[in-house]
Write a structure and sequence with these properties.
The complex is a heterodimer of chains A (about 55) and B (about 575). Chain A has about 55 residues and is mainly alpha-helical. Chain A has a domain of about 35 residues. Helix content of chain A is about 55%, strand content about 0%. Chain A is built from two helices and no strands. Chain A starts with 14 loop residues before the first helix and ends in an 8-residue tail after the last helix. Chain B has about 575 residues and is mainly α. Chain B has one domain: Cytochrome c oxidase-like, subunit I domain (Cytochrome C Oxidase, Chain A), CATH 1.20.210. Chain B is about 70% helix and about 0% strand. Chain B contains 18 helices and two strands. In chain B, strand 1 and strand 2 form a beta hairpin. In chain B, helix 2 packs parallel to helix 4 and helix 14 packs parallel to helix 16. The longest helix of chain B has about 35 residues. The chains are: A mainly alpha (about 55), B mainly alpha (about 575). Chains A and B meet through helix 1 and helix 2 of A and helix 5, helix 6, helix 7, helix 8 and helix 9 of B.
Amino acid sequence: MAEATTQDEGPPPGTIQKILDNPWLLLVLGIVIPTLSYTVWGLVEWFLLKPAELP
Amino acid sequence: MENFLPNKMRVCDTTGLPVCLEAERFIKLNAVAAVVSLLIGALAGITVALTRWEVVRFVSDLTYYRVLTFHGLNMLIFWIIFMEIAILYFAGTTLLKSRLASPALAWVGFILMAGGALAVNITILQGKGDVLMTSYPPLAADPVFYGGIVSFAVGTLIAVINFFLCIYIARRDRTYKGSVPLVVFGAIAAAIIAVLTLLHGAAIMVPTFLASLGIGWGSVSDIDPAVYRLVWWGLGHPSQQINVAAHVAVWYLLATLTTGARPLSQSVCRVAFVLYILFINLASAHHLLVDPGVSAEWKMWNTSYALYLAVLASMIHGFTVPASVEIAMRKKGFNEGLFGWLKAAPWKDPGFSAMFLSLFIFGFGGGVTGVTLGTHQINIIAHNTLRIPGHFHMTVAGGTSLAFMGLAYYVVPLIWRREYPVKALCRLQPYIFALGLSMMAIGMVAAGMHGAPRRTPLSGVEGAGPWLALLGIGGVVTFTGVLIFVLTTVVAVFFGKSNKGGPIEGWQDMERMKSNLALITSDWQPSKTGLKAKGTVALVLLFMAWFAVYYFANWKALADVWHVR
């Protein structure tokens, strides 16, 4: 099947290609970046939230 | 070098690819569970649509919430994720010429998923889980409801781990050369997003389950809704981003199978998938745009600046898939004018029509509305209105479900080795589904623009009535499309004509199939053909114009309701 499903041998992979070929590195980055940007930052803001004063 | 165990593989008579028989079993099991979830979810969906149609008002208010909970979980979670696990097992074995890493893990995962889905559905039907899919506290459901979701999530995580083990043993045993195929890379992206999703699911649903048993937080109603919403949406929205990565991978696969297309640039496509892995999950913040507990900086960074990198990825895929089809069609001789290739495309092949319609609805509908609604300022005029379900029906149902249906038209003949019956009806099915879905989504968006709220059977919003009627009529047409798909698939699986020992009958005439196969098996490079994707560039310009009109019309709408003096 075409390159959507197979890929032939070519020249030695460059740095970007090596990163793309490392699913474990992508797994770590895919967990760490969204967790820091969305979850941890959001939870820090929640922890720092001061209770509203009743009027 | 292949690594199959003795008597545990067969060679596909059509593609020549080796099929691990253990993996095949779990592809079938997960696909069957997916289609069952789709059917019962669609039954609930038509009930919801007919209830929102004001002149019909099909069920009572309480039943509406029950049915909506059932619809949401079966369509957004069970149908989609069962199907995605089937795709992961296919991509992790057949496409890598490798075996399933652990049949035992696959059994444990499947039993936990199926058991969890069953427990959740029974609890909802018993009236013990009327909390909608999001189950926001202080709404509380029976512990079995939360336990079922935890069971489903743990089962999914085990299946995803099994997929990563497949990747590991394929690399270890060198069953493929160079980089993994692009479709497998897309599946890896979906699996990585799934891990993050399931970790958030565990972080919120396990404590909620324990709270429902009186352990930890005390009770479900004691849980802080702000924290719950923050962490839950780390599960809720990314679960739909697994879909996006998976259905984009399916687009590439179907483009290849139906036209012989080959990606224009492997590197660019892969970088686009990496942008998904890194940034698409930040879209969860869209759901908290009117929450007071998080800052404007957090909202804007997560929904705009960083997320636009994931939007860029979708636009890359949205260009490269049709462009690769265009180049393949032009190479086959359909080189007339700007759109001669599109006119000559295999529109009677349900694999192709489902793929292209999915791409169109996802981009022109779901993508444009999603980016617009995700803008912090504009969101204030759309939050919690029917515009939101209008958007995600175009991404999840129009994008993902339709792509998965197109995939089934190839998976059933290739994996079950049985042919679809009533092929003329199958050829029509993607059009019926796409038409109904578009009517339904347009009805939702327009009713939402009049202020019709989501998640409620309440009616009487001025000006929304005709659009809610369009929603209802569209729901009937969509349901017809789902029913045709489910019935023909079930008949094919159990009673379809066997194609064992020979190639599949296929959906195109012999001449077309031969020319596709010639492209699929030859070593051609789109960049070396000298052909240009002029038609796709024209479609992209049309898309950008539509996006600009919709986006700025919404700013105008915001200005109309928010006078700054």
